Amino acid sequence: MMINEFIERTGFKPTEYYYHAEIEREYEASDMDKDKWCKLWLKNGGIQKAYDAMCKDAAANKLKVDAYEKRITFLQNKEAELTEEVEALRDDRVERINERMELIEFLINSAEKWSATDIREKVIEMIGAKEYIRYKLEHDLNLWELDKELIMKLI
Q: Are 72 and 64 in contact (CB under 8 A)?
């Protein structure tokens, strides 16, 4: 029997799940015709039994929904915390990069001022030859003979 046939005969509209899980199984286990089976189902308290079972399912589903909502709230809060941590780390990283760049600029300018090749080498070790040369060119600093040799190696 189809669900719409059951509804027409009993006037009761169960959930799809309850119909297929309970009513249809009971009907298929019997050897009665549809009309007799539906009358007997009504007479034996089928509607109350169905309401009770559907209420029990609804309560169980409500508990599941509540648990999922709590989990979602927890995860949303955790996501917000992690987002704050990432932003703080990003800010810290930007600050450290800026401090490093200030230090490098200071070292380059100190090397220029004192003609200190050891400081120059340290700067090249820190930022690489290309960045060192780029900085000197962008800031119109004099190219040393060592710088010119470095440029020739890079070309």
A: no
Q: Are 144 and 121 in contact (CB under 8 A)?
A: no
Closest CA to 22 of 56, 53, 59: 53
Say which DSSP state 23 is in. I
Residues shown for the chain: 155
Q: Residue 57 has which token pair?
A: 């399912």
Rounded to whole angstroms, the Cα distance separating 152 from 102 reads: 28
Are 49 and 56 in contact, with CB atoms under 8 Å apart? Answer: no
* This prediction's pTM: 0.56
* Cα–Cα dist 46/39, whole Å: 10
Q: How far apart are the first and last CA of the chain?
A: 86
Q: Which residues in the chain come in under a pLDDT of 50?
A: none
Q: How far is CA 66 from CA 72, 119, 127, in A?
A: 10, 64, 55
CA atoms lying within 13 Å on the CB side of residue 122: 13
